[in-house]
Amino acid sequence: MRVLLVSTNQERSPDPVAPLGLCYVATATAAAGHDVRMLDLCFSTDVDAEIAAAIGAHRPQVIGLSLRNVDNCAHPVTVSYLPHYRRVVTACRQASTAPLVLGGSAFTTMPAFYLPALQVPYGVVGEGESAFVELLACLAAGGEPRAVGGVARWDATGGGVTVTPPAWLPSLDAVRVDRRWIDTRRYLERGGMANLQTKRGCHYKCTFCAYPVIEGRGMRMRAPEAIAAEVTSLLDDHGVDQFFIVDSVFNAPRGYAERVCAALRPLGRRIRWSCFLTPGNLSGELLDAMLSAGCQSVDFGTDAAAAATLRGFRKSFNVDDVREASALCRARGLPFCHSLIFGGEGETWETVAETIAVMDACRPTAVTAMCGVRVYPETPFALTLLARGEVSSVAALYEPYFYFAPAVREGLAETVARAGRVRGNWLLPGQRVNDEESLFALLRGRGLRGDLWRYVSRLRLGAALAPARARTSE
Predict the structure, then answer these.
(1) Is 456:437 a contact under the CB 8 Å cutoff?
(2) Is 276 in contact with 247 (CB distance < 8 Å)?
(3) What would the mean pLDDT of 412-420 be, rounded to a whole number?
């Protein structure tokens, strides 16, 4: 079959992110014998025209649409991407009668919403390498994919949405990705880095996290040798020497990160990469191995630095772990960021103050602070809120829904904004306090690559000192 795969994402803040997941699906679909074309809309200035041109050139028999994000996950300036997705669907329908199939991480979090909202008959939930190929076989044979794992179907006559549970791949050994489907070099120039996946799934039990919904609860690892081969290809075939490891947590399960670093160590002088870490399960030996393998910065999914809120989030580490992880990074001169979510269960003004104080003591390169917990369907926190009657129905979570602990519901955003204003290393997505987008544009304009939070504090310090320098020179 002729298949057109469309990456619909156009969000480029703080960086444009290459559609790695759709590249995996495109590679598997082509390997199954289908004639595949891929359209990446990330940098498009005329979505309707580019969709029409791609459909006209390829004449697809099936069109797959990848939905990456539900919204920007920020409060109070929240942006839903549903209107954009509707525009993409409309443009496809105006140019073709081919059946549409939805997929991607956003779709997987709420298939029962997206199919009727966009009036699309089929979708793929979870991993698409096998499910999408099997769905294509059913469509080609004129059948209904009722027995295909990971397929959602919408009955427009009133039957609602039915979802077959995802068929998670038991192993990633046979999974391959071809970067020819996208302009990798353009992402490097516009975003500063490529992306790389070493594993899928997450076995942690953080209450609000959608990673287990999107990738499964069991961690499945790739062979470190295959990862090193992919990085070598990024270097030699695409000229890419900077990348972000997109795993939910790089330093889990225990021992695996060390094996990956050992495989990457021969390339360590040629590459620079970043990743997400948990403050628990971290040692100086692992950080040394990461540095030898080319690691240039790390982002801790800390979320809170007070005992009560960490318990509320069901985090696997404690405040001492946060302090120790920070000290390990500082001792090695490794730039590090703590990402926080204020307002979770158990949050009080005392825990807010404690988290801020711990951050000050940890002296991170940067802090990314969000207000309110974005609640997604099927997460443990969503089930808790539904059971307590604090959320009327799952449908209430389809639109951006943010939870605030009652004790800090009034005034939390203002309190966090004040903390951010007086700290030059804090970034506040959704608050528009420190104008991060202008800062990032300035930094990218200077040719900087990688995680831009590494430079924000120095840039703001330079801006603050500029008036003093001007006065001194007069």
Answers:
(1) no
(2) yes
(3) 95
- Furthest-apart CA atoms within the chain: distance in Å: 80
| All residues at 6 or more sequence positions from 318 whose CB lies less than 8 Å from its CB, including other chains | 280, 307, 310
Rounded to 5 degrees, what are φ and ψ at 291? -65, -40
Read off the tokens for 125.
């939930």
Write the DSSP symbol of residue 149: T
Q: Over pLDDT 70: what percentage of the chain?
A: 95
Which pLDDT does position 460 carry in this prediction?
60
Q: Is pLDDT of 456 > 90?
A: no
| Residue 161: partners with Cβ closer than 8 Å, 6 or more residues away | 111, 112, 115, 116, 152, 153, 154, 155
- Written as one string, the DSSP assignment of 425-447 is TEE-TTT-SS-HHHHHHHHHHTT
The percent of residues above 90 in pLDDT, for the chain, comes to 80
Closest by alpha carbon to 152, among 200, 100, 202, 201?
100
Per-residue model confidence (pLDDT) at position 412: 97
Instruction: Please tell me whether residue 155 adopts helix, strand or coil conformation.
Output: strand
Note whether 175 and 24 are within 8 A (CB): yes
Nearest to 128 by CA among 81, 167, 155, 73: 167
Q: Does the structure show a pLDDT above 80 at 293? A: yes
Q: How far apart are CA 213 and CA 218, in angstroms?
A: 11
Tell me the one-letter amino acid at 77.
V
Cβ contact 222:196 at 8 Å: no
- Closest to 427 (Cα-Cα) out of 305, 355, 347, 337: 337
Tens of pLDDT, residues 161-188: 999 999 899 999 999 999 999 998 888 8
Q: Which of 302, 3, 285 is nearest to 132 (CA)?
A: 3
The neighbouring-strand residues paired with 35 are 2
What Å distances lie between residue 357 and 13, 188, 303, CA to CA? Answer: 28, 36, 14
Residue 389 three-state SS: coil
Q: Residues 111-138: pLDDT tens digits?
A: 999 999 999 999 999 999 999 999 999 9
* pTM for this entry: 0.92
* 31 vs 33: CA distance, rounded Å: 5
Residue 156 identity (one-letter amino acid) = A
8 Å CB contact between 188 and 17: no
Q: Do the Cβ atoms of 204 and 278 come closer than 8 Å?
A: yes
**76 upstream amide cis, omega within 30 of 0:** yes
d(Cα 56, Cα 58) in Å, to the nearest integer?
Answer: 6
Contact 4, 37 (CB under 8 A): yes
- On whether the CB atoms of residues 218 and 253 are closer than 8 A, the answer is no
